[in-house]
Structure formats: structure tokens, C-alpha cells
């Protein structure tokens, strides 16, 4: 279904042409003065020079033809040459009714669906999830849902950090604690135990302990590096420990992501990319892309237009070890082999931007991906505490994700119990649903690239630009719709009627924008615009609700028209929050 902007643009183009002007001028935008009009066109100003005519006259010429169109209630020409438009209530109602007939609320699926891979989450195995991983998960999940809604084939890949030095650290510490385990017996040829020699709790203690030992003790660090080296070169016992670490860790990660309503299609990781490295390195050497620089193998990626230095992409260290660049390049080789994506979007902390610039340039330059593959870095900012510094626990440590979620849920539970409309059990369940919305909306409503302040009080508030406010609005609509039914309201498909008052029209105009907004959100990979949109809908709905008798409206037709509008409003809101990755409870 065409968006309203497209439809109006078509009308506008026809009017410009009929009046004898170039239709290129007929650009229509949403009004930035909603008090004066709903849509506007400033093309007459742009045409003044070309036609050597006052913009006002051009606008007047065009307006003559616009006035013939049934789309508009008013067409006004304002000095110096703005064309201000208000839609006719009938055409708004028609549009909304059509929209509600479509499955995707007027959004048209991509004519040529793309294969898009989204690299997000990126947790490091054996380390507890912390708030830094929260943003990647939340933003990535939403981007996945948005691009998928557009009809693309979308594959979300968690890209585990499962191959680095942290593995060597854990192996080293485990060996010190339990040297008797068969994994450390070089002569052992039997089958290794199926059960892991640690629990997730132990694993999460082993890692930081080993990490701090290694920082203090050079010998220990060397041992851990050597263990990493052996693991990466196929040491049988270490590989078995690695498998245990993976199983225990991934089970725990799955639980955590499930709680966040975050789901991955692929659970691949850095380790999976390793087997692609030798051939890739050989290609880079043979085709003359790589050169040695002080023993290290590098690929130059500096471009002439660069204002700053972009250091070469590091392929192998002088001791032959692979690096972060290598792994990401090899992962692209793998992705190319398995999926031939048209686009890969990386949702990663923006401090890693340089790394991705290097990797992207190297992948393009060396033909690892085709020149048409779009590699996009969606870098996000830091989540800060109220003090403006990276979010920490009260004690100053790294905040674990679980604890953060618990803190929000407890606060939500208190607020819900203060309202005292639900039982304790239900309140707990509701608190989890609303708590998640508070966290996700708090994050997504900011432009991804910016830092933001995580403020429990603000995020959990039922008022203002928050997740709970949005959910509260949905719940309010649900309850009106339920009452309408209880009172014997018609169960048949109702239709939206031309608006009767300004509040109703304002709400309608918001709802009607959904497909226009969605296109921009998708095009710009910008979930924050979806948040801004539903916040506006919620505001318009609540104004309408306070100013209008809905269920007590006596005119049956009017009443059912309101109900139809509420039904569509609810669908739009629910679709949007689903695209953002959360849901609404039945009651609050
Ligand atoms: N594991 C990395 C980290 O915690 C993030 C991985 C991001 N994705 C990637 N393809 N490099 O910093």
C-alpha cells in the first residue's frame, strides 16, 4: 500500500504539471507546524528562479488544481509560497480502513528481498554478561525484527567471543586447581568425561581470578598464553576443556538472552572462523595484498581521501598468531560461503569503529566480499550511570546484567503493587514484562550512537517518554475494547469513520503515518524513530481519551467508529513494540 506521503506527492506532482511546472518541485513533507497544517510543499520557492516568477504565484497556480482533489479539506497558499494542506476527514478514514485490512498495516514488503546478516550480542564465553553487552543485544534484536518485517531474509548471529586468551586463562587456572584431571595428562588417550569439571558459578569465578593472577604474575601470563596457543593448535585435552566451557557457558547465555526476549538464528563464534584462516592467509599472500611489516603480516587499507591515518589491517602477528582482524575477516569468508549476504550489519560498541573500518576495507579490497556487499557498522554509545560515568554497581564494580534486570523488576513490582489492582503473583509476572520494556525502551529511544544515562527512576516511570507509559497506554486501550465487548458491542468488523473532533483527527493522522515512519526507520536503521513515533501516538491517544466520551457515546455509529480506531491504534502500537523487542501485559 502506498504511504500517505507518496499519495500526496503524486497529487502534488500532477498539480505542478497541470499548472505547467516541473514535477520535480513537488516535494511534500510532514508539516513542521502541525498547528497550521498537516502536510506541506515548499516547491514553489525552489521554482522561483527557474521560472522567474514570485513563489506565491507559482503556489497559487498549483493550488488551483490541488483544490480539485478529494484528498484535501483545505489547500492554503501562504507567503512567500508555502502550500499548506489539510487532509479531508473522509480520505483519512478511507486510508485507515484500508490499512487495517492489510496484514502489515500498509507496509509493503521489499520487492527484491535481501539477505541480511546481523552480528550482535557478541558476548565473551565464560565471562558473565554485563551491561556493555546489553545494548548490542537490545539494538541488534530490534534491527533484526525491523529488517525482517520489511520482508528481507534476516539472519542474526551472536558471534561469540570464544577463542581468545580468556580460554587459556581458564585452562591454566583449572590445571593448577585440579592437575589430576585427565585433560592435563599428556599420555591420556581414553575418552574424556562427559560431565564438565565446573559449574557456571565456578567458571565465572575462575575467569576473573585467573585474569587478576595473570596481571600480577608474568610467569602465569606466559603459561596462559601458551595454553591459548596449544588450544588453538589442536591440543586434545584443552580442546575437551574448551568444549566443556562452551557447553556450560552457552546454556547459561541462552537463559539470559531468553529473559531479554532476544533470539539468535546462529550461535557461531570466533572459533568457527579459525578453519578459514589458512586459506585466506594464503590468498592474501599469493594475490599480493599482504606484506610483512616488522615480522607481522599486514594489508594496507589507507585511502587517499583519509584525513587521519588508518593503520594497516593486521593479519598475523610476528609469532604467526591470528588476531581480532583476522577472525572477523575469516568470519566474512565463512558468511560468504554459507549465505552470500547482501548486507552485514555489525552492532558493536562504537569504540570499535576503527577495527571495523580496517576489516571492511580489507574485505572489499581483497575480494573476500563483493564490491556490492554492504558492510555496515552500527556503533553504539556507552550506557552511563547518573554520575555520567560508565554504569557501575554501588560498590563500583561491573554491573552484571542479571542484577540490573533484577533492580528494574523490583522497582516495577513496587510501583505495580502501589496501584494495588492485581494479585501478588500477577504483579510479579507483570513487573517482568514491564521491567523489560522499561530497559529496552530506555535504551532504544536514544539514537544508538549516543551515550545515555541509565536512570532506574525515570525508566520505570508510568509518565513521560518511557516504556511503561507506552504499555500503560496499550493496556488502557485493551481495557476499553474489552468493556465494549462486555457491554454487548458488535463483534463484527467495525469501520473507522471520518473524524468528529480535532483530538480524534490528530490521533488518526498519527496512526496513518505508520508505513511512512516504518520506511524511514528501516532505511536509516533507526529504532529510536520508532520510539519517538509511538510516544506521539500514545500522547495523541491519551488526549483523545481525556477529551472524548468513548464507551458512553450515545450515537451507536460514532461509538463503533471510535472502537474501530482504537483497535487499529492498538495494532499499530503492538506491532511497533514487537519490532522494538518487547510486549504488553493484559493488565497493569
Ligand atoms: N566479543 C566482542 C566484545 O565483547 C564483540 C564482538 C563484536 N562482533 C564482531 N564481529 N567483532 O568486544
From TrEMBL:
Catalysed transformations (reactions) = tRNA(Arg) + L-arginine + ATP = L-arginyl-tRNA(Arg) + AMP + diphosphate
Q: Does the keyword Nucleotide-binding apply?
A: yes
Name the GO cellular-component terms: cytoplasm
Q: Can you supply a Gene Ontology BP term from the record?
A: arginyl-tRNA aminoacylation
Q: Does the keyword ATP-binding apply?
A: yes
Q: List each copy of the Arginyl tRNA synthetase N-terminal domain by range.
A: 2-87
Which keywords are on file for this protein?
A: Aminoacyl-tRNA synthetase, ATP-binding, Cytoplasm, Ligase, Nucleotide-binding, Protein biosynthesis
State the source organism's domain of life: Bacteria
**Entry-linked Gene3D superfamilies:** Arginyl tRNA synthetase N-terminal domain (3.30.1360.70), HUPs (3.40.50.620), Isoleucyl-tRNA Synthetase, Domain 1 (1.10.730.10)
Q: What is its EC number?
A: 6.1.1.19
Q: Which residues form the DALR anticodon binding domain?
A: 470-588
What the entry lists under Pfam families is as follows: Arg_tRNA_synt_N, DALR_1, tRNA-synt_1d
Where, per UniProt, does this protein localize?
Answer: Cytoplasm
Residue window of motif 'HIGH' region: 123-133
Q: How does it assemble?
A: Monomer.
Describe the family membership recorded for this protein in Swiss-Prot or TrEMBL. Belongs to the class-I aminoacyl-tRNA synthetase family.
Q: What HAMAP family has UniProt attached to this entry?
A: Arg_tRNA_synth (MF_00123)
Q: What is this protein called?
A: Arginine--tRNA ligase
**Organism, as annotated:** [Ruminococcus] torques CAG:61
